Amino acid sequence: MSPAHAWAMLYCACMRLCVCLQRNGFDGVAPEGLVPGTK
């Protein structure tokens, strides 16, 4: 696996985690502006 592919997978996983946390009501766990369009 290339480093770029690994970074893309990691980024995607982080985005999913952030969205999941926000849906569960843990707003503010991720810094504001980290995920575009959430605030």
**What is the C-alpha radius of gyration, as a whole number of Å?**
12 Å
Order of helices and strands: H
Low-confidence stretches: none
- Tell me the distance between the termini: 34 Å
Fraction of helical residues: 40-55%
What is the approximate shape? rod-shaped
Question: How is the main sheet built?
Answer: none
Question: What is the number of helices?
Answer: 1
Tell me how many strands there are.
Answer: 0
Describe the 3D structure.
By secondary structure, this protein is mainly α. Helix content is 54%, strand content 0%. The chain is built from 1 helix and no strands. The chain has one helix at 3-23. The mean pLDDT is 75.
How would you summarize the topology of this molecule?
Blueprint: H1 3-23
List keywords for this structure.
54% helix, 39 residues, 1 helix, mainly alpha
What is the compact description of this entry?
The chain is 54% helix and 0% strand. By secondary structure, it is an all-alpha fold.
